[in-house]
């Protein structure tokens, strides 16, 4: 049961970044996105990923691995389209 809750939480929190990525990709506009917030978010997600490896938790590893890719992509677009 605990693993199932972890996987559901992982799917929901990870896919939450998909609409933002699609919007930025299509509009090429990142004016409303905070650079500082995404820098902090990427750092936090990276640390969660490290923590996931430390505790050997697949839901934490998968969620934060995918989330890191998505948030880094948005961060790169923010810097690129500045």
Fill in the keyword field for this structure.
single chain, mainly alpha
Describe the 3D structure:
This protein has helices spanning 2-15, 18-27, 35-55, 58-80. It is elongated. The chain is 83% helix and 0% strand. The model has no long low-confidence stretch (mean pLDDT 91). The protein has 82 residues and is mainly α. It has a single domain (2-80), classed as Monooxygenase, CATH 1.20.1280.
Biggest sheet details: none
Alpha plus pi helix count: 4
Q: Give the total of beta strands.
A: 0
Overall pLDDT level: 91
Structural class: mainly alpha
The percentage helix is over 70%
Topology of helices and strands:
Blueprint: H1 2-15, H2 18-27, H3 35-55, H4 58-80
Helix pairs in contact: 1-4, 2-4, 3-4
Summarize the structure.
With 82 residues, this protein is mostly helical. Helix content is 83%, strand content 0%.
